[in-house]
Amino acid sequence: MTTTTRLALVPLAPLALFLTIPAQAVAEVPHAGPHFSGTLSGGVLNVDDRDTDLWAFKAEAGVDGLYRVNDDLRIRYELIGDFANAINSVDAQTWTPGAHAQEEGEIYVRTARVFLLTDYGSLGLQPRAPSGFWGQIYRNIDTFEYNRLHKQTGQNAIFGQPEQGSDVLSYGSPTFHGFRFIGAVLTPDNHNDEELDVVTGRLVYDQGPLNAGIGHTRIDTPADDGYDLTRTSFGLGYDFGMIRLGGVYEHNDDRADGMDRGFEAWGLNASARFTDAWSASLGYAENNKPGDADNSNVTGIVRHHFNDQVYAFLEAATYQNSDDNLAAGISVSF
């Protein structure tokens, strides 16, 4: 397993823990679905020292559904394709979803997974899936279209946590007074004589205006015996009504090959919905990677909402040690 592979390993959580369907609908029909949905967010991207380019910031479409086997078992499925990598021309100064795993011009299968849902929790079989670790613990700072700062954003990456992963077997507990535990094992490398490449777990809380989460990931690399790459993350957010505040802290301990490449990263974010038509977010994040790899970022975005599914946006970001950028466009969901 290469350094790139092990740093891209992702702890994930069942989306079924978030998505619900009316109980009456589940009781009346054995199959709710398939439901087709998608999002296309496109516009222009200007990166310093690079020509302005038309850009697909997000281009997803797929199906999902829910089977009711009996009163004790339900099965949820999802299959989502990401077309952004097939649309955009990525280079060293830019990034696009799926580019970390596919060649340029190839469609990336973002989500392919099945959940077994019971009163005792959910079991996830996930060949491909977005990171629940990122989605739950880092969600309060992930409010932008292009400058999302996770591991797979190229030169913009502030954090070590990726947003996308593969080969995941997960368990999510039932919710108890707002608390939920999610554990997972990942096996992305089939040729390293290790059955469990990654072991991860997190405890999250989400009730009322407060959300919080803490998680830990241990990764076994071929460089040494045992788990020599670890990541611990803590996220917190509070919704005051018009304004939402949040932050995240991440500690990476990487001692593979006898080298200490560990670093810390943190970020803060304030988001506001001024009216039904206007919203904005402002964020700051930084890391202390060794050598000249450290970086910091300030990003701001303003959105004009035409309705619940269509909005226009203008986003600007500046970095300490990578290229500043400006993005503008329209997002349509269906």
From TrEMBL:
The entry's cellular-component GO terms read: membrane
Q: Pfam families, from UniProt?
A: Porin_4 (PF13609)
MF GO annotations: porin activity
Q: Which UniProt keywords apply?
A: Signal
Q: Does the keyword Cytoplasm apply?
A: no
The Porin domain, residue ranges: 23-323
> Does Nuclease count among this protein's keywords?
no
Source organism superkingdom: Bacteria
The signal peptide annotation in the UniProt record is: 1-27
Protein name as annotated: Putative porin
